[in-house]
């Protein structure tokens, strides 16, 4: 009989494990994959997430494995600035930096710190049932009974589907390639991320460590076909984009649809709680999906520090987190649509340029500030 079971060792489940360990809870994480090996891509850990890693004693390790990013710039195809978000002042205020890092590096740091013995790999949850406790059945035949369950099993969560019988996945109508390559960026991009907006397509890149660049490219679905040539597709973009694409080996590129989860009314049931993408997956346009799963784990931990009644913690958790998460899911969806306009781009860029920087900063501060 487990006191606490966590289903899924993604960034959300691993952060939750670290937080429960810090508070001496007994828990087991079940992960379907045979090893902790996330998709080969980079990820941005924003200041909100890095403040939490600081509290876990992991900030320096993550900073050293990744690259500090002090600002994000949106430009047009020829790299003319549309908007800049500098976070230096907020980094000082919150005593943490944005960090771009390889996903594998981040997940390994989290997994090693919580102790690999607490993670059961090759355990893919097949069925979850509520009796007196939760009965968990895995595809490998293993069965377990658990008092408390956390569903951290991502956007296609079986825990959510079977217990809440809900979960409408929305497709944004955009295809997204992610790539990793060894590339020497011009020095001015060493600590800045760039996102370039074209017509019905976008390209972003960021340095994640010495010589390593993570990039992503999106096109609207109507422009997509099998074996689309990315270099041809982005030939009207600055030559730097084409050089990055040329430097990337095909085996280091992955392709996904951009999807999110229609907000669901309740993230918890008796003795069970969903966190991260399982509860509120967002499109990636604000770079906040994983950061929000980290914030979820943190808030659960903070509430457990003063109250060990899990059911009242889960209720309070949703009350605290709901507004911020809903705002991110909604704004991210809208930003994704605007950034992929196919017509009226000059007007869009003009309007974007006229948004005062102070307004932008206010919105960013709201996201980077922890709620508790
Ligand atoms: C293109 C793109 C770029 C992104 N960039 C960023 C970014 O820069 N910053 C950011 O913060 N976020 C970003 N995100 C979002 C981020 O990837 C997700 O929000 C984050 O991974 C969610 O973490 P999670 O732990 O909730 O779920 P997941 O990462 O999906 O982890 C779920 C885990 O559960 C396991 N699992 C699933 N089903 C089962 C089962 N039945 N039994 C056992 N285990 C199971 C999976 O194998 C997986 O390990 C991006 C997303 C995309 C698509």
UniProtKB/TrEMBL annotation:
One of its GO terms (molecular function) is FAD binding. It is an enzyme of class 1 (oxidoreductase). Keywords: Monooxygenase, Oxidoreductase. The keyword Lyase does not apply. Its EC number is 1.14.13.24. Residues 3-304 form the FAD-binding domain. It holds the Pfam family FAD_binding_3. Gene3D superfamilies: FAD/NAD(P)-binding domain (3.50.50.60). This is 2-polyprenyl-6-methoxyphenol hydroxylase.
